[in-house]
Amino acid sequence: MWPDLHQIYRTNTGVIIYVSQGSKSPHDFVVRYREPGKRQRTPKHIHFIIDLYLKRKGNRELTQRLVEHFVNQVIGQVQPSVSSPPSLQVFSPIHTSHFQPLNAHGEYSVEFILVATELIMIQEKTNYPHGNMNLKLFQRFLSEADIFSVVSTASYR
Question: Is 9 a domain residue?
């Protein structure tokens, strides 16, 4: 058993990204975050997809490159967590510099999306080693599938 909340990362804008122990497997965890002055929340795939649509509307090419980064860099490199709490495996603050212009669009900073999405991907690999929901979601977004199909994938339970 580990403490209820364990801080993993604090963004430059003061958003604190936490994890708490989950129940699906021995190293399962739940990603949570708190923005300054707001209550704690649990990010969902649907939140990121909506934000990515807003970012794509503002800067299509750079948003495509961000999602390609998840598909080509992060998903292929993250491994199941073997420690509790987990650690970031791919993220480096240098990654945020490439995508900074996207901060002008949508709700979330690129830094937050990079960290929180990586943790969600680690969570998927930890609980479902052969799972590919994240990959399918981002591939559908990249293929510019109809929005209903992408949102359905993002909100699948």
Answer: no
